Amino acid sequence: MPDIREILPPHHKHCDELFSAAEEAAQQGDWPACAASQTRFVAELLAHLDAEEALLFPAFEEATGMREGPTRVMRMEHGQMRELAGQMDAALAAQDADAFAGAAETLLILMQQHNMKEENILYPMCDQALAGQVDALAGELRQRLAAAGR
């Protein structure tokens, strides 16, 4: 039986790899490579955030009755990530390496802390609370994440 921890943490790693490629290309001033990597990173990041917000979080909240707990914090941090990704996009458009690096550094720290909370606290809670629904939920999560890579 699949669980949330088999699906979402590997996707975190995939997003991290795309992020690193964009950051490295910006540092080298290779704006075409940065644009390609950034586009893929943002598509995967947004697909991940959207899948959690549309599928995982509502199912968890329904099963536990917790609407003001961990999912509220995660949604707030998702908003911060979207804002920082937008700042990176703007810096990329301006070919401003310093602005790109600044937004990227802040986003990296936020993503690292966020992913640790999800992987060590929220996902195990979801696996427990959603034990009867994990198969269907896992399939839907996989579909949404796979669609971003197309």
Automatic annotation (TrEMBL):
Residues 5-126 form the Hemerythrin-like domain. PANTHER family: BLL2471 PROTEIN-RELATED, DUF438 DOMAIN-CONTAINING PROTEIN. Coiled coil: none annotated. Signal peptide: none annotated. It comes from Sterolibacterium denitrificans. This is Hemerythrin-like domain-containing protein. One of its GO terms (cellular component) is plasma membrane. It comes from the Bacteria. The lineage of its organism: Bacteria, Pseudomonadati, Pseudomonadota, Betaproteobacteria, Nitrosomonadales.
